[in-house]
Specification:
The chain is α+β, with helices and mostly antiparallel strands. Helices cover 36% and strands 31% of the residues. The N and C termini lie far apart (69 Å). The protein is built from three helices and nine strands, in the order ββαβαββαββββ. A hairpin with a 2-residue loop joins β8 and β9. The chain is elongated, with a radius of gyration of 25 Å. The strands form three sheets. It has a four-stranded mixed sheet with strand order 4-9-8-6. It has a three-stranded antiparallel sheet with strand order 2-1-3, with helices on one face. The relative contact order is 0.13. The model has no long low-confidence stretch (mean pLDDT 87).
Length: 146
């Protein structure tokens, strides 16, 4: 008998999953405890449509990440900052500044958590920052501070 799980059940599946179980298990345990409901044709079709939408959204997300990688790979981001007489910056270049400049210059949204910067940039010149794009792949972005 096919049932749709109404909650996560250890060893069986996650909420919303369609599972094949014995009739006795469904009638004696799952239905009385409101852990599952019968999987009618309509329920199965809804689940298939949800899975298709989820797959489509995941593919779009991967394409967007690939686009980000292609757009930012080995590009140079120009950041203007005021320097002290000693040659250091009055205000360091942080992840937040980098994200804002990427949005301005490349018209691309990047999360601060995707910018891999050990410490803020404190000097004039060129630095390289890694941007997390794909699952385990990063891209190098050059930051030119002037």
């Amino acid at each position: 008998m096919k049932v749709r799980l109404l909650q996560n059940i250890k060893g069986m599946g996650q909420k919303g999953d369609i599972k094949e179980v014995s009739e006795g298990q469904a009638r004696n345990m799952l239905f009385p405890k409101k852990m599952a409901e019968p999987a009618t044709a309509q329920v199965i079709n809804e689940k298939a449509q949800q899975d298709k939408k989820r797959q489509h959204a995941q593919e779009e997300g991967e394409q967007l990440k690939q686009k980000r990688h292609d757009l930012l790979n080995n590009k140079t981001l120009s950041v203007h900052a005021e320097k002290t007489p000693q040659g250091t910056l009055y205000k360091s270049i942080t992840k937040k500044v980098i994200v804002e400049e990427i949005l301005k210059q490349f018209k691309m949204s990047v999360k601060e958590s995707d910018v891999l910067l050990d410490e803020p940039i404190h000097k004039i010149g060129e630095s390289t920052v890694k941007i997390h794009c794909l699952d385990k792949q990063t891209t190098n972005l050059k930051i030119q501070v002037s």
